[in-house]
From TrEMBL:
Family that this chain belongs to: Belongs to the class-IV pyridoxal-phosphate-dependent aminotransferase family.
Biological classification of the source: Eukaryota, Viridiplantae, Streptophyta, Embryophyta, Tracheophyta
InterPro entries: Aminotrans_IV, Aminotransferase-like, BCAT-like_C, BCAT-like_N, Class-IV_PLP-Dep_Aminotrnsfr
Protein name as it appears in the record: 4-amino-4-deoxychorismate lyase
Organism in which the protein naturally occurs: Solanum tuberosum (Potato)
Pfam families, per database record: Aminotran_4
Length: 336
């Protein structure tokens, strides 16, 4: 058994990351445990006795960073706080303070294209099942820059054999993503991009971390109901944009309702929608080709990709971070 001093631990954590080949860079992290922002990946850690780690008692959300703006931050923050209430987590800050912390974390990171992921946990305290022994709920946030090249090609999906989460848990964005991870792995094992869940009644539900939508042969925009699945912020925005296509006569109407697998696979177009993919065209589901098997139409692409961005409220990030805000210890840390 080897006892390692703290300095050596940090040194080894840095070394272990140097040899790790990843497509993602972690540019800044906020933690309410130490009350500040760090830019050292070796310090981007959370306590083992945090109930989010060993009990899954935590929630999270994500906002895309686009050209120095946080895309739909307020919509995602509302859902974040709603999930915290459903998970019975006492929120340690008011909404405006959380918003300010999130924006400041992006500012420190200097990231202009990437994503901001943030968590609210029941907090550290012990290894019991109940969170009654936790000191205080904790807020974490991390800025991620994905170095993968953009890919807009049409994708293949399969039907998931992994059971979908019950509605009580599916409608909140908790950290319990084991079913989601297994569903994604199942897709990859079958040379597909994602696996599509069906609900308990056999209707189309959602993907592992994105919503699904269709354009029928009658040119109706069709999306499953949100009562048993996560209410996607980007999906809701797409519904608003679809109204413009209805006005222009490019779509006949919009329907949010139960969608059978048969109707879904007969659609002219199918898409995955989420803050990570925005809108991604699906050209094949299981063995059935969707529509003509090609990338979705130019009209849909124009509205749902290029028009998706400038028409929504953004949170502007100021990157003018004063050097007086930064204190240098073994790593760079900014205190809020």
């Amino acid at each position: 058994m080897i006892f390692i001093f703290t300095v050596k631990v940090i040194e080894r954590m840095r070394t272990s990351r140097e040899g790790h080949n990843t497509k993602q860079l972690y540019l800044a992290m906020y933690s309410s445990v130490f009350g500040g922002i760090t830019t050292d990946t070796a310090a981007m850690v959370i306590p083992m006795d945090d109930h989010m780690v060993h009990r899954g008692h935590g929630i999270f959300d994500t906002a895309a960073i686009m050209d120095g703006y946080l895309y739909e931050l307020d919509q995602h923050l509302d859902r974040f706080l709603g999930s915290a209430t459903m998970a019975k987590i006492q929120i340690p800050f008011d909404r405006e303070s959380i918003r300010r912390i999130l924006i400041h974390t992006v500012s420190v990171s200097k990231c202009r294209e990437g994503s901001l992921r943030y968590w609210l946990s029941a907090g550290p305290g012990d290894f019991q099942l109940s969170s009654s022994g936790c000191h205080q709920a904790t807020l974490y946030a991390i800025v991620i820059k994905d170095q993968s090249p953009p890919d807009h090609r049409g994708i293949r999906v399969v039907t998931s054999s992994i059971p979908i989460k019950p509605p009580q848990f599916a409608v909140m964005k908790s950290v319990n993503y084991l079913p989601n991870a297994l569903s994604k792995m199942e897709a990859e094992e079958n040379d597909a991009y994602a696996a599509i869940w069906l609900d308990g009644d056999g209707f189309v539900a959602e993907g592992p971390n994105m919503n699904v939508a269709f354009v029928t042969k009658e040119k109706d925009f069709l999306m499953p109901c949100f009562d048993k699945i996560l209410s996607g912020c980007t999906a809701k925005r797409v519904v608003v944009l679809a109204e413009n296509l209805v006005k222009e006569g490019k779509l006949r109407g919009i329907r949010v309702e139960n969608v059978s697998v048969e109707d879904a696979k007969r659609a002219d177009e199918m898409m995955l929608i989420g803050s990570g993919v925005l809108v991604r065209s699906v050209v094949q589901w299981d063995e059935e080709v969707i529509g003509n098997g090609k990338h979705f139409s130019a009209a849909i692409e124009t509205i749902f990709i290029y028009a998706l961005l400038p028409l929504v409220p953004f949170a502007l990030v100021s990157y003018a971070c004063s050097k007086s805000d930064i204190l240098t210890f073994e790593h760079e840390m900014v205190f809020s």
